[in-house]
Give the backbone structure.
Amino acid sequence: MHGEFVLDAADALKSARLMRVNHAGEVSAQALYQGQGLTARDPRVAEAMRQAATEEMDHLAWCEQRLRELNGRTSLLNPLWYAGSFAIGALAGSLGDKASLGFIAETERQVEAHLRGHLDRLPAADRRSRAIVEQMTHDEAGHGAHAASLGAAQLPFPLRSAMRMTARLMTFTSLWL
Ligand SMILES: [Fe+2]
Ligand SMILES: [Fe+2]
């Protein structure tokens, strides 16, 4: 590919593992937004969900494409992440728009922090993966800010902690499986 550095095998392997985690995260993002879009009440909220879902679809496609280029594979657990996230999204949506927006704002905040962590860990030579993760970080911050501007409720601390633990479990398992 034009402008692409040739990665050594160790860097390609490292990138593929990190991008597999991000791909799994985007599978979850799809499912969350789809679940929430189903149950959103205010048309402005439903529209914001649809808009964000479209960008999440781009993210998923970029991660998948990059994984292919790195000869990596997607996570075996993706169907599980999809099903679980869809159910959680539908549940969050059923609690009302403020809670649902709060859930998005918190999720996107956590995802943004996670992606920033990956920018520290991705090999410097892997400019393509880095560019993808940088754009995703920017978009996730936008999704979170948009949800906040529409009136997101602050989620209770135990729920935020539970979300962080779930994300950690997903991140860890997708590195390996
Ligand atoms: Fe995303
Ligand atoms: Fe997002």
Summary: The chain has six helices and no strands. Helices lie at 9-39, 43-69, 78-94, 97-121, 127-149, 157-176. The mean pLDDT is 89. The CA atoms of residues 102 and 155 lie 6 Å apart.
